[in-house]
């Protein structure tokens, strides 16, 4: 009986010690899931991770909750997109020194991302560099792991390049690569993989496009023989289907803000776009 009690006490000690060790790890909070997954791939078990948005939600106009504020107070690092996309998160942060603004950082090197509506995570080439920037930031917490974090970033960049090569091979057999999209969230990805978007239903998903804009887009789409409209779930999907019906096009619904590992999400986007183009225009 004594040995049994000792065993139970030892087991409880290990469990509680493990819990305490986990709680003592620095907490990284992100505004959207993509930054959580970037940090998690680089930092592994060295940190804890929390994303305010959970995936499938719109980052536009989000109202921060008391539970989010508590996490932000506890956080040692807060990763945000910036560029006006997730300014709402700043309301819950007293110490702005712990904010890691991806958009602000990348805009110093790439002025083109300063334009309204630029979504960095849909630019896979730029995301390769983001992984290295996050690796450098996390190494401030654990300087001895700097080389390890850089190696993780290098491995991930190689995976992105391999995926882009597969996408390029898939699209080589597609003669026409023209689409309409609901709004410019996909513009960086289109440019990267060689898809031409002839127009967007709206420039801002928070604003309803006027009838004149829709009419002009439909007329141009008919003139150019557009057979694919790309959108996402929600109000955009309803309007996109109306436009597609007018021009006799297929509709592809993508989730621009998934809660997945980035390469998994990127692979899904590229595969679906390639397949939809083949179905719409033929090989």
TrEMBL record:
One of its GO terms (biological process) is metal ion transport. PROSITE patterns: PROKAR_LIPOPROTEIN (PS51257). GO terms for molecular function: metal ion binding. InterPro entries: Bact_metal-bind_prot9, Lipoprotein_PsaA-like, ZnuA-like. It comes from the Bacteria. Keywords: Signal, Transport. Pfam families: ZnuA. Gene3D superfamilies: Nitrogenase molybdenum iron protein domain (3.40.50.1980). Belongs to the bacterial solute-binding protein 9 family. This is Zinc transport system substrate-binding protein. The lineage of its organism: Bacteria, Pseudomonadati, Aquificota, Aquificia, Desulfurobacteriales.
């Amino acid at each position: 009986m004594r040995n049994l009690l000792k065993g139970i006490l030892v087991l409880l000690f290990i469990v509680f010690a493990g819990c305490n060790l986990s709680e003592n790890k620095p907490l990284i909070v992100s505004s959207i899931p993509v930054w959580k997954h970037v940090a998690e791939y680089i930092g592994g078990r060295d940190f804890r991770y929390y994303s305010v948005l959970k995936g499938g939600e719109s980052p536009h106009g989000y109202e921060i909750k008391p539970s989010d504020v508590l996490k932000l107070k506890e956080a040692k690092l807060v990763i945000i997109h910036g560029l006006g996309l997730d300014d709402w998160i700043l309301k819950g942060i007293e110490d702005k020194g712990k904010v890691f603004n991806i958009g602000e950082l990348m805009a110093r090197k790439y002025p083109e991302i300063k334009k309204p509506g630029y979504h960095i995570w849909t630019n896979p080439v730029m995301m390769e560099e983001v992984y290295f920037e996050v690796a450098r930031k996390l190494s401030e917490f654990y300087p001895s792991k700097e080389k390890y974090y850089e190696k993780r970033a290098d491995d991930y960049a190689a995976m992105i390049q391999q995926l882009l090569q597969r996408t390029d091979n898939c699209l080589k057999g597609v003669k026409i690569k023209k689409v309409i999209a609901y709004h410019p969230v996909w513009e960086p990805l289109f440019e990267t993989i060689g898809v031409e978007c002839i127009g967007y239903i709206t420039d801002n998903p928070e604003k309803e496009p006027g009838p004149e804009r829709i009419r002009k887009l439909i007329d141009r789409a008919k003139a150019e023989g557009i057979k694919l409209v790309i959108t996402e779930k929600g109000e955009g999907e309803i309007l996109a289907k109306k436009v597609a019906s007018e021009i006799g096009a297929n509709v592809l619904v993508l989730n621009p803000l998934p809660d997945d590992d980035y390469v998994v999400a990127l692979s899904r986007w590229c595969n679906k776009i390639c397949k939809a183009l083949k179905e719409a225009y033929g090989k």
